[in-house]
Amino acid sequence: MEKKSYTFDEIKLKLVNYCVYQDRCHAEVEQKMREFLLIEEAKEEIMLYLLKENYLNEERFTRSYIRGKFYIKHWGKNKIRMNLKQKQISEKLINKCFDEIDEADYEKTIRKIYEDYASKQKGLKEYQKKSKTIKYLMSRGFEYEKINDIFD
């Protein structure tokens, strides 16, 4: 199938709409631009336009991503950090934006996931249940030290 060719302004509009639909990071926009086979100068011009007009804002994206993954998906900080690094977000920005997660909410979420998961473990000794539940929480991205602090 033949790819449809677009003018520079059409591509720019498509990328604006892409950023308006949901907060995006630089890596996602660059990936989207690869679909349009643009020359470097055109890519740079579009990126500068998106940044200047505030369609593309790395801090806003990071804060939104952290809120969504924690409050909706119930991911821990380790998993969120790892996924943001895959999106080429700097460690400094990630650490700065983790204030989006309230510590009381974080502990409450760990407790709730712990209780929900532990209650589903049938026919296991108490230490096996605890061990399995801690492993589950760690797979969700919660820190071992934080889990231990809460349940010791």
Automatic annotation (TrEMBL):
Query: Any idea what this protein is called?
Result: Regulatory protein RecX
Cite the entry's keywords alphabetically.
Answer: Cytoplasm
Cite the RecX second three-helical domain residue spans from the record. Answer: 57-96
Broad class of the protein's primary localization: cytoplasm
Pfam families (alphabetical) = RecX_HTH2, RecX_HTH3
**Biological process per Gene Ontology, one example term:** regulation of DNA repair
Look up and give the organism this protein is from: Chryseobacterium wanjuense
Checking InterPro entries in the record gives: RecX_HTH_2nd, RecX_HTH_3rd, Regulatory_RecX, WH-like_DNA-bd_sf
User: Any keyword Transmembrane?
Assistant: no
Cellular component annotations (GO), alphabetically ordered:
cytoplasm
The family classification in the record reads:
Belongs to the RecX family.
Q: Where is the RecX third three-helical domain?
A: 106-150
- Intracellular or extracellular location(s): Cytoplasm
